[in-house]
Amino acid sequence: MSEKIAPFRADHVGSLLRPPELLSAREQHQGGTLSSASLREIEDRCIRDVAKLQEEIGLQGITDGEYRRTIWHADFLRQIEGVSVKEGVADGAGVARKFQSGGQEIERSPTRFYTTGRLERSRGIETDNFKYLASVTTRTPKLCIPSPTILHMRGGRDAVDKQAYPDMDRFYSDLAQVYREEIRALAELGCTYLQLDDPNMAYLCDEKMRESVRRIGEDPNQLPRIYAKLINNCIADRPANMTVCMHICRGNFRSAWAAEGGYDPVAEILFNEFKLDGFFLEYDSPRAGSFSPLRFVPKQKKIVLGLVTTKSGEMETADQLKRRIDEAAQYVPLEQLALSPQCGFSSTVLGNNISVDAEVAKLSLVVRVASEVWG
Question: Which domain holds residue 230?
Fold first, then answer.
């Protein structure tokens, strides 16, 4: 894995803690006292600063910190024609989301996604945002977008309008077409590093969530293969110089998590049937299980080990990380491995319970250990 080709030996998942200035500006915008243009100017300035910070830390893949989003998935998916987003609605439908933190259960009604009409991409979704990011870094601009599976698994067949889509094959086909068009436009702008964020593949490893999937009429044993076909269709036209990876975690809301269980139920299909270049895998706690599912990883794919937690400021040591990398290397050759935090630092605008200093320290540790392990 050349350090010039993503995923990088030292990498990160994407979202970063929002600065107070940006949080204040977003509140003012929501309250109607700050224009959209003024908000974007502040976002631009903050993104320029955080891109510089990532460069100073020594990262090669530079993100915009997801600074233009309030939540990692909804801001993207709601821009697709035919999608309706409902946040904080406890309607009893869909796959359950109960977040855990410090032994306490956090009740949170998940964001619901409904397909109310034919899916279409009427305009660029992340194209303008990518152009700006690319203009403020001399390194590789990395774009993170939600996986298309999010639009299905939250509610299954019942969340897809039967008049618009009497046939689910057409739903998946149209959804893939939206992603293909967006990815093509991003490629034309010079995007060479794309990440699909997909906690669903980890949720399908949790028996409680697998039961929730059954309750909405879906088969948790079949969904990985259905989703592989969907995502392969989405990325079918990507150019040869574009790396596409998937990030998989067990939920990330203000340092809380939603699922647990090793990758065993999905590993063989995930690593072999998804035509992706690499996988960012959460491995910061026993909730993720052992490294043994990595035995299914084929030679040409990369695994980015998410060994550094973003859920607390407690610091890992370099020796701890190196021991864990050695353990993983029993299943996947060292040259196919890389290192990152297990998730973003701020999947929602609220951010995790961690300081900016700790965020910087953890990213710096990733860079230092990667350099010591891989040279």
Answer: 20-374
